[in-house]
Predict the structure.
Amino acid sequence: MRVLIADDHRLIVEGVKRALEEAPDFEVVGECNSGSQVLPMVGRTNPDVVLLDLRMPGADGLACLSRIRKQHPDVKVVVLSVSTDENVIQTVL
C-alpha cells in the first residue's frame, strides 16, 4: 500500500514513517509538512492512502481533504487529529 504522510510535526512523520517502513505491505511514497504541498504531492506520488493532519500551515486540512476527495476519489484519507470538536469530526466523516 502506497502511503503519503502529511503532517507538520517532524516527530510524528518520522515515527509513522518508521513504523510503516517496517511493515512489508507499506511503502511511504512522500511526505508533506504544509497543506499547500498535499494536493500536488498526491498528484505526483499517486498514493493509495494519505495520512492527513488537520492543522498544518499553508492550507487547512479540511480543505485538503475536500480537494483530495474531489480530484482523487480513489485515494483514501486517514485523518490525524487530536480535535474533539464534533463539527470537525462530522465534516471529516
The helical segments are 10-22, 35-45, 61-71, 86-92. The first strand starts at residue 2 and ends at 6. The domain at 2-92 is CATH 3.40.50.2300 (Rossmann fold). The chain has a mean pLDDT of 88.
